[in-house]
Write a structure and sequence with these properties.
eight-stranded mixed β-sheet, globular, alpha/beta
Length: about 200
């Protein structure tokens, strides 16, 4: 399986509390729920298609608990690709503190995470997907385990909150695989990491 990430971010890179005002107030975050006014049918259709491709999901603990308390607790609404994918496919959680997950078909990865994820990637299949899970994504990028990055960039500057990419971190060259925008201005960008960037002097 290839490891792919799909992240909704603001123009200034914020990924915290996007779904609801009270979704994640850690660090004093007060501007949650910024995605809903900007997420149109085209963006929703794209996201549904992403989830339908998943063979398994990999989460950090915080995102797992948010998803388990929402998607994992809701009754089957019928015909929702995201609900179906999340509730019928294997889920893996990178955590040293989660010991008794309640969501069915969940496996906790607590020891030697790099080896465990390498073993998952070696399995046949399409995609091992990471949604949300900012700290995990940063760790995966640090360890060169990400095969494809999808960003859904919403036309808003949130101005506070946790950002996908830290102030300091690895430098990564990217190939643009796909790029398009939706009617409400969400830009969908799909990248493949290709090693380290090249640095040269600009010429005029």
């Amino acid at each position: 399986m290839k490891l792919t990430t799909a992240t909704m971010v603001s123009v200034d890179g914020v990924m915290q509390g996007l779904g609801a005002p009270d979704e994640d107030r850690s660090g004093g975050f007060e501007r949650g729920g910024w995605v809903a006014p900007l997420f149109d049918n085209e963006a929703g259709t794209f996201l549904n298609q992403v989830y339908e491709r998943a063979d398994a999901f990999l989460f950090g603990r915080r995102t797992y608990e948010i998803f388990a308390g929402s998607w994992g607790a809701w009754a089957d609404p019928g015909g929702n690709p995201i609900w179906t994918a999340l509730n019928t496919r294997p889920k893996y959680v990178a955590s040293t503190t989660l010991t008794d997950p309640k969501w069915s078909d969940t496996t906790v990865l607590s020891d030697d995470l790099a080896t465990a994820i390498g073993d998952l990637k070696a399995k046949p299949g399409g995609e091992l997907q990471v949604h949300g899970s900012g700290a995990l994504i940063r760790w995966l990028l640090d360890n060169q385990l990400v095969d494809e990055i999808t960003l859904l960039v919403c036309p808003v500057v949130v101005g506070q909150g946790t950002r996908l990419f830290p102030d300091t971190g690895p430098d990564i060259a990217l190939d643009l695989v796909e790029s398009r925008s939706t009617p409400k201005g969400v830009t969908i960008q799909v990248y493949r990491p290709t090693g380290r960037p090249q640095y040269e002097t600009a010429t005029t």
